[in-house]
Structure formats: C-alpha cells, structure tokens
Amino acid sequence: MYKIFDTHAHYDDEAFDEDREELLKDLKVSGVCGILNCGSSLEGARTSFKLANEKEFIYAAVGIHPEQANELTDSVLEEIKEMAKNEKVKAIGEIGLDYYWDENPPKEVQIEVFRKQMSLAKDLKLPVVIHDRDAHADTLTILKEFPEVTGVIHCFSGSLEFAKECIKLGYYIGFTGVVTFKNAKKLVEVAKNIPLERMLVETDCPYMAPEPNRGKRNQSSNIEYIINKLAEIRNMTGEEINNQFLKNAEKFLSINIK
C-alpha cells in the first residue's frame, strides 16, 4: 500500500455530497496521507477552505476556474486573497485558460482573470494550480509574464516540448488517470522524458478515474494505478517513484508530509 498525496482533488464537488465524511475517513485508512483540494469557483474555494480547516490531512487551493471567469469581481478577488492568508491554503487555483467549450467566457475575459490571479499569487508568494485546455500558447505567454510565480500544470495535456518550456519556468507537470488510458501516447512520451523531480500525481476527482476504474467516480486512493503506470514507463518500482512524488509534493506546497 502506497503512502499517497493527491495534489489535485475536488471533494467539494456534489458527487461526494452523500458520503463525503465516510469516504474521507476511509481514504486515510487506505494510505492517503494528504490532499490538495482545489476550488474552481467562489463556492468551491469556500468549501475547500472549510474542508482544509476541518481535516488535518487536507490543504486548500483557492481560485476561480476559467469556466467561471465571469465570477471574478473585485470583492471576490479580495475574498480569495483573505482566504489565501490562512495557513492551510497552500496555492492559488485552479486558475488558467479553457478554450475547449464554446460556452465558456470570452478569451479576453479568461486572460484578464488569469492575469489578476497570477498577480495575486505573486503578491502572496504562493504557487499556482494551472488549468490549460486547448490554450497552450496563451498559457505559456502569461506564465512567462510572472517569472516569480511557479506551480503545477494540472492534468497536463500538451506536448513534450511544451512540458519542457513549463519546466524551464519552474513548473511541475501533473499526471492524472489519463496516463493509464490506451490512447495516451503523447502523455506517455512526456512522462518518459521529463525529470522525475518535476512530476506530480493527482486525481482531479471525481473526474478522470484511471484504468481499470475509468468512467466511475474517482477518489484519491486510485492514485496507486497512476503510480504503477508511471513506474512502468520509467522502469522503476512503484515505491521508488512514489518516494520522489512525495518529495515533490512537499516542495511544491512547502509542507512536511507525515
């Protein structure tokens, strides 16, 4: 049984409303030693903040997801800033750009909101959790505008070249259950060729469940399948590679994993 740190989860999601407390207790028993719960709306940020302050092994990231970019008023930004001063809040996120859905806010709105939250992370000296979907070029441009800020490219979906550019800027690359899918050839190439010191494992639960649980509600204990797949790709044992992932999570979030 691995000691698991999930660097991206959404236990504030309604998918967990019926059994959240019970599930979180079970996760601790099954080896999950830590979780970064990431807000993706103001309500999600508030719930993540609450969870982190109630559960010793949960930390929070607070921010507005690009799909909710219209939410970011001055007062919302101020509320996020106040939450981020709490010792259990370890990152600003999930923030970034999402050009996949036509119904998302316009690109210029997303970009403005992204920049405002990157600026907040810079001011507070916190890392960021970046959402980047079909927006690699604009994402990279904005990351370069804030060289003082680092973080993770969550649920990485770009090329090896893009990964290397992000790593040059000090970012980690986040691997979800997608790396276990049969059609994940591009992601496997990334996993094989970037430094181990720049890799993190995450669920994005309740989404992105790995094989053999694809399509089901995801949870942090499923990271064992991601660890096993990445160990296979790198020709290492699961224990060896996971020890590095734990060290990376500690450095990313400036915490000591117990």
TrEMBL record:
Q: Which residues bind a divalent metal cation 2?
A: H131, H154
Can you name one GO molecular function term for this protein? Answer: DNA nuclease activity
- Keyword annotations from UniProtKB, A to Z: Hydrolase, Metal-binding
Q: Which domain of life is it from?
A: Bacteria
InterPro entries to which the protein is assigned, alphabetical? Metal_Hydrolase, TatD-like, TatD/YcfH-like
Query: Could you say which residues bind a divalent metal cation 1 here?
Result: H8, H10, E94, D204
Q: Which GO terms describe its cellular component?
A: cytosol
Pfam families the UniProt entry points to:
TatD_DNase
| Record's protein name | TatD DNase family protein
Q: What is the lineage of its organism?
A: Bacteria, Bacillati, Bacillota, Clostridia, Eubacteriales
